[in-house]
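Blinded run. Sample ID left blank on purpose so nobody reads anything into the name before looking at the predicted structure. Input follows.
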Amino acid sequence: MKTLKKFSLITFSLISLAALVVSIQQAKQSNLFLLQNIEVKSSVLVPPLEDSKIVRLAEVLLGKVSLFDLDLQAIEHRILSNDLIQSVSLQKKMPQTLLISVLYREPRAMIQNTKGVLAYVDSEGKSFSSVDLVRGIDLPLLTNFSGQNPERIKEALRLLKAWEESSLSQFFMISSVDWDSERGFRALVAYPIERRTQIGQENLNNGIRTRVDFGNVLDLNLDFKLLQLSKIFHYLTQNSIAVRQVWVDAGKKVVVKTARGS
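Blinded prediction complete.
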């Protein structure tokens, strides 16, 4: 009797499992689960690519494929072919929607690549995509870094990040960072001053540009050096002094060379 009950239970379970498999197969073939919508979620407020471009990269036809049959790995590979995109996450939303979440690379600077094309540089020091002037992103330019050790580019980015996080960034802007084989890291900095004229005061916002030499190595005292620079540039601005060059690689001292007439 027990054997019969056990056999009946196993038989019932197998029939139920078979029915479930058949139901799943029928559901896959049903129009109820045909892909009808693609939603794109961006990591930035104003993405460099329109949603329609992401959909075209995905190469998925609406109304032609079941949500169950989507090859997410292949879709991810196609979307990542655009190097503006750092990563992508795909999610099936039953019954008829595919959600594409896009994380874009964040440009931190511009650089001229080995092909002579002006490209973006991300926080990891990797160049990507040609610069789109229409986007109007105001980024510093890295010069003479092409063909250099990637770690050197990362060091230049560390300098830019430290500058942005210091009090300097509110009033004084780095327009470029240059690598010189003898002098090391050299930044071109813009700062505002006012000059006296016969008419009165002439405001020269970001009108003065000076070269700041940081040396071959950006040491652990970088934050202290930036603090010194902040005091110096505030003094120069308040007293309308134009300088040609500043050296912060002279030990604990900061050396300033004024422009003629200042």
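Unblinding after everyone has recorded impressions. The radius of gyration is 30 Å.
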